[in-house]
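Input record, target 12 of the design panel.
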C-alpha cells in the first residue's frame, strides 16, 4: 500500500478543487460566484474526475491555484508533467487583477 504525503499548499488545492467540483454539480451559479470562477473554468473543473484532480495537485506542487488564476483552464488542460513548470513561470494573478 502506497501513501502520498501532501504539503499544506497541495492539501489546500486538493480540498478547494473537490469542494468546487461538488458545488458545481449542485449549484453552478452560486459556486461560480463564491469562488470567482468564469464559465470556462467552471465547466472544465466540473468535467474532471477525482483522479484527474489528484494528478493535477501532485504535478502543480507547492504553487497555489486559488484564488482562481487567469491561466487555470490552461493548467487544467496541460499535460500533467508540464503543469508544475507552467504554474511556476506564469504569474498566478487572478482574473480580475488583469483588467
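The sequence produced for target 12 reads:
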Amino acid at each position: 500500500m502506497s501513501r502520498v504525503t501532501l504539503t499544506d499548499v497541495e492539501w489546500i488545492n486538493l480540498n478547494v478543487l473537490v469542494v468546487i467540483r461538488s458545488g458545481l454539480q449542485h449549484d453552478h451559479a452560486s459556486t461560480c460566484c463564491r469562488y470567482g470562477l468564469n464559465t470556462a473554468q467552471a465547466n472544465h473543473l466540473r468535467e474532471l474526475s477525482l483522479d484527474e484532480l489528484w494528478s493535477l495537485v501532485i504535478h502543480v506542487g507547492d504553487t497555489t491555484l486559488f484564488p482562481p488564476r487567469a491561466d487555470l483552464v490552461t493548467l487544467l488542460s496541460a499535460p500533467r508533467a508540464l503543469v508544475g513548470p507552467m504554474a511556476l513561470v506564469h504569474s498566478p494573478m487572478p482574473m480580475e487583477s488583469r483588467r
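The mean pLDDT is 88.
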